[in-house]
Amino acid sequence: MSLTHYSRPSVTRRLFAHDRVAHSRLTGNPVGVVDVTPLRLADQLLAGGKDIADVCRELQVTEATYYRWRNQIGGLKADDAKRLKDLELENSTLKRLLADAELEKAALKEIAKGNF
Questions:
Q1: Is 15 in contact with 41 (CB distance < 8 Å)?
Q2: Number of helices and strands (H, E) in the chain?
Q3: From first to last of its 116 residues, what are the pLDDT tens digits of the chain?
């Protein structure tokens, strides 16, 4: 199974312009976060009579990616998805702060021992 780099089509690139967080190298999505916008677009295309394969081709994602996104978002409404996204971003910030604090604590212990 080969993994290829995901590049968003120009249609959806506009939709993701607000993403200013770390992105996965393989999927192009914010790390750990699924945006609701492509799923809304997919729903509109499906309602218009297109099948899943055509929708995935237009979004330039595999069917597996589409279904993974669908499972991650599930039945969330837009405000719930936004809140989830905000909480995940806050969580990643807090994890980074904790890691920095732990590094600083370890450095201070080394200095206190005199092993610098």
A1: yes
A2: 5, 0
A3: 444 444 444 444 444 444 444 555 545 555 455 566 788 888 889 899 999 999 999 989 999 998 888 887 776 777 887 888 899 999 999 999 999 999 999 999 988 888 65
Rounded CA Rg of the chain: 20
Per DSSP, what are the bridge partners of residue 61?
none
The DSSP symbol for 21 reads: S
**Residue 109 identity:** K
Q: DSSP code of 26? A: T
Q: How far apart are CA 14 and CA 23, in angstroms?
A: 16
Distance in angstroms (rounded) separating the CA atoms of residues 100 and 102 = 5
Is the Cβ–Cβ distance between 54 and 110 less than 8 Å?
A: no
Q: Single out the residue of 41, 36, 103 nearest to residue 76, CA to CA.
A: 36
pTM for this structure?
0.42
Contact 60, 9 (CB under 8 A): yes
